[in-house]
Design brief:
Length: about 325
């Protein structure tokens, strides 16, 4: 029996270079499960790995992507946690070691999940939410858990508080859904008028367009009186505005790595609000399970921007890279 997998050749930096390989179907070893893949999702970190050098080993090919949903189709010796036929997703990682967290599947020497079958350690597999299909479940491991950690892993968001996130990607949309389910008021920050309309239609209390208000942090603080949590999905380039938007004792959860310029940080922004800045690198296994329970309790369904077929993996990468994506980009595996 054989399996299919997309492979990024050594040192390739474009999705156009992806090649589809047929390989022998691997049997799970002791303590492992094999998952018949039904859906995988793309994250911003996958584009960073694609371009390198982030997450790449020179001269090494790589199976990309880190987030998968499917059905267990074989188990190794000693596995009692899952039976064949169980619907599962993967944990991005078990814990977040200090000072440098691992990068998850589909990076460095860890093969990814853009394949028909993957074999994983049993402690890196978790049951899928009971109310979601494979397409939606595939969005949880990185984007969903990151947003959960950002809102509930530090100063837990409560009803009546104000939350903001940047952009319309997977983490930002998860943050909106989780905040609203917790009873908080959600405020968005975007760059496009079309995205502004989408967020308003989705129930945002207000949306600030940074094209109209380059100092969007001050504008957000003006209209809200200060927000309790800002989920910063961009990086160091936006920290100043994120801190400016905070209410007293608020928190900025820095989850983005896309803009990493070493910009100066004005400590008075922290002293003035009594706020805090917390780095968020996805989350733990416990947080993943907490997210699943919360989503089941509130019947939350992730926002999916588009679904692509397995054979169109290159186009899925290209679509994800274009501006204007709202929610998650998913690839289904027949």
């Amino acid at each position: 029996m054989t399996a299919l997998r997309w492979v990024l050749p050594p040192d390739a930096v474009s999705a156009d270079a992806l090649r589809l390989h047929e390989v022998p179907l691997r049997q799970p070893g002791p303590g492992e499960v094999r998952v018949r893949v039904h859906a995988v999702s793309l994250n911003g970190r996958d584009q960073m790995v694609l371009r390198g050098p982030f997450g790449r080993i020179p001269g090494r090919e790589l199976v990309p992507l880190s987030d998968v949903a499917g059905v267990v189709d074989a188990v190794g010796d000693g596995v009692a946690e899952f039976e064949v036929g169980a619907a599962v997703t993967n944990l991005h990682w078990q814990d977040a070691p200090v000072p440098t967290p691992p990068l998850g599947l589909g990076a460095l020497d860890a093969p990814g999940v853009l394949a028909s079958h993957v074999v994983l350690p049993v402690n890196q597999v978790v049951r899928a939410p009971a109310h979601l299909g494979h397409v939606e479940s595939a969005t949880l491991p990185c984007a969903g858990v990151t947003a959960w950690n950002a809102l509930f892993g530090g100063r837990e968001v409560a009803a009546g508080e104000k939350v903001a996130s940047l952009g319309t990607g997977g983490v930002a949309l998860y943050a909106m859904q989780l905040a609203k389910a917790a009873g908080a008021d959600y405020f968005g920050v975007v760059r496009r008028a079309s995205a502004e309309r989408r967020l308003r239609d989705a129930g945002a209390a207000e949306v600030v367009n940074s094209a109209d208000f380059p100092q969007w942090g001050a504008r957000l603080r003006e209209i809200t009186g200060g927000v309790r949590n800002v989920v910063d999905t961009v990086g160091t380039a936006t920290i100043t505005d994120s801190l400016t938007a905070l209410a007293r004792q608020g928190e900025v959860a820095l989850v983005g790595l896309f803009a990493r310029e070493p910009l100066p940080l004005d400590p008075m922004l922290l002293f003035g609000s009594g706020g805090s800045l917390r780095g968020v690198a996805v989350g733990t296994a416990a947080q993943h399970r907490e997210l699943i329970a919360f989503m089941e309790r509130h019947d939350l369904r992730p926002v999916v921007d588009s679904v692509h077929e397995f054979g169109d993996a290159r186009e899925a990468f290209a679509h994800h890279q274009r501006g204007g994506v709202v929610g998650k980009v998913v690839i289904t595996v027949p």
